[in-house]
Amino acid sequence: MRHSTTLDQAFGRAATAAQRDGNSSSKVQAFEMSPSPPFTQSSSSQPELQEEERLVQQYEEVQEEFSLEVEQRSLQQCISGITKLDTFNTKRLPKRPARPQEQSGRGFNLALAASSPGYPKRRNNRRQRQQQGHHVHHGQHHGAEEGQRLPGPGASARSRMAHVVVACLVRGGKVITPGLATCSEGSPRLRPHVARLLNGRQPASVTQHAEIAALNRLPKGTTRRQLRKMTLVVIRPKFNQNLGHTRMLCAQPCRECAQIICALGIKSVVYSSEDALYRCDAEALLSAAQPSSGTVFMRREEPTSD
After folding, report:
1. For 40, left (φ over 0), alpha (ψ -120 to 50), or beta?
2. With contact defined as beta carbons under 8 Å apart, do 213 and 195 qualify?
3. Of 10, 11, 53, 212, which alpha carbon lies 20 to 30 A from 275's?
4. Structural domains of the chain in order of their starting residue, each with its CATH number
5. Tens digit of pLDDT for each residue in 63-88?
């Protein structure tokens, strides 16, 4: 607003000077069309020419000042935009860390750790101390010595985890079923996405074997065509305290698991026995497989129940 008012005053003064000379229209037009109009008419008097030159000089100064201020404003806008951009970058939320992928083959590492003497490790030490104190108090009532502590519940767990059967499915040199697939006292049933490949057929074993646990860890959407290219690996590691290293005991699949493996069409089976690994196809495994101890026990109990 200040610059526009100054320009209007300059134009008003120029028009007044032109009216005094009598040629207002031609001189104002020449002044508006050209930034520096030629004031070289001989009819004008010397004071009027000086006044016109002063007005033209003032107009040029105002125009130069206006252009400098416009450039300064544009520069400030650019600087403020860059500052806002830097502030936005500094306040940007950090990227989320990538989800850790499941490491294939860690089941074997956990199995080897399970075969060590100090496995499993108790994390809840407070609860363990309370249980041990309860055993000591209970032993005092039954004639046990005060300094003698009865074995806590962790002792039986260590003895049961002295050796464990671990299984996984491999294809193309990569483990397809990550995690620790071991034998347990859980349900022996297959998951729906695996049982669907067998038309709902379920294994006849009593507890969950390592082979069934590995099959349950197959990703959803696995087809029979993919199973025909897979190999089932079963090992049974046991840590030998006398020798100081881990031995591989017999982990040949039982007849119940061999029937499921053969029905799924798995390519081959690799199992450990006496510190060695043996490889055979599913049909040969089924012909040489023996029933599990749980199945034998159930068969022995059947005549007694009748």
Report:
1. alpha
2. no
3. 212
4. 2-77 (no CATH), 106-122+154-301 (3.40.140)
5. 888 877 877 777 677 666 544 544 44
